[in-house]
Predict the 3D structure of the following.
Amino acid sequence: MARLSTTAAQAPGDSSPAAHSDEEKQAMLDRVIANQKKNDEAEMVYERIEHKEIRKGPGGTPPEIKISRVVPAGTGVAHIPVGPDGKPIDASLYRAELEKLEHSLAWAAEEGRAQRDAYDKIAKKRKDRAELIEATRSAFLYIFVAREPRGDRMLSKYRMEPNPAYKPTSRSTAIFAKVRGYGWIDEEAGQLARVEVEVTDDIAIGGFLAKVYKGSHFMQERYEMAPGLWLPSYSQYDFDGRRLFVSFSIHERTFYTQYRRIGPPKEARATIRAELGKPGAVNADP
């Protein structure tokens, strides 16, 4: 199991995490990991608006901006272009995208060999993701730094250092030895509120096919978007590396707003049909 140690000095009467026992700290980490898995599951049934700024190349390159209504569709995700206010830019084009989404949801709600194969692939990706989250329990040492306010909440900041005793179980979990960072935990909610990670050594991807260079960076902010669910509000990637013999530089910022539960495919299809004004919308799952 990962060790959670503390180094920050404590004021008299301070009830910060540094005063917790090792067992209490480990229980907190267990709770955060369990909640993170629930949050990931929820993203499969919540739609949102994504404002994405993508810059490929040097710092002076103007970013490409994409604003989309993002809707889970069972075996995929639909990205429907919208304006800065989250509303359609062109009504006819927007309706055409909704029609395509309805067909995708209808297909995803059916039972057949093709659907089972598609859902098996999704299940494999979700299992791999869950294993990565679970591995963070022991892949890092969590060292208490300080208590920091965010709005009306108080967060506990931990430094995340690779655990030298950790034994990777896959190629994916092996990357944890080459990253470090900070995590901000809302202990009252048992949720990860913010994370910042830096690559400390080049990471090979797909053998020799690609590499992410040392110094690449990722951060994400998360807030409670629905009762008990903390979903991303902002993410930022700053990655440099190469694919084969071609260098790349990707800088991406994404803002997430207007989360709304749309449900699994059958339920989501009923919502989209109602939005299209179609009669006889499929009954939603209870």
